[in-house]
Amino acid sequence: MIMFMLILSLVLTTVLTTLNFWLAQTTPDSEKLSPYECGFDPLGSARLPFSIRFFLVAILFLLFDLEIALLLPLPWAIQLHSPSTTLIWTFTIILLLTLGLIYEWTQGGLEWAE
């Protein structure tokens, strides 16, 4: 059964990749190759750097999203032999993330305007 699933996955992947290369349009026109497709000529450089605050907020979002992924199995973990250990680790994770958020807040890392 495992060998069948591996062969089926390999065949399906090969067929879909071949279809993609065969059916894809590989002749882009001049409008698609232009830097902007909105109808306006570029006014400035297209390589303007992002603010570091944008990346900070994105990383904070990922961090708290990861926290939810770590805490999601908590209701089932309470039924283990030592639920107190589970709760201690849970509160440790929440405490570390809260302290990190408070530190960023006090340092002004979450302020959009300076």
UniProtKB/TrEMBL annotation:
> Which residue spans traverse the membrane?
50-74, 86-105
Record keywords: Electron transport, Membrane, Mitochondrion, NAD, Respiratory chain, Signal, Translocase, Transmembrane, Transmembrane helix, Transport, Ubiquinone
Q: Which residues form the signal peptide?
A: 1-17
Its membrane topology is listed as: Multi-pass membrane protein
GO cellular component term, pick one:
mitochondrial membrane
Q: Which PANTHER family match?
A: NADH-UBIQUINONE OXIDOREDUCTASE CHAIN 3 (PTHR11058)
What this chain does, per the entry, is described as: Core subunit of the mitochondrial membrane respiratory chain NADH dehydrogenase (Complex I) which catalyzes electron transfer from NADH through the respiratory chain, using ubiquinone as an electron acceptor. Essential for the catalytic activity of complex I.
Q: What is this protein called?
A: NADH-ubiquinone oxidoreductase chain 3
Q: Source organism lineage?
A: Eukaryota, Metazoa, Chordata, Craniata, Vertebrata
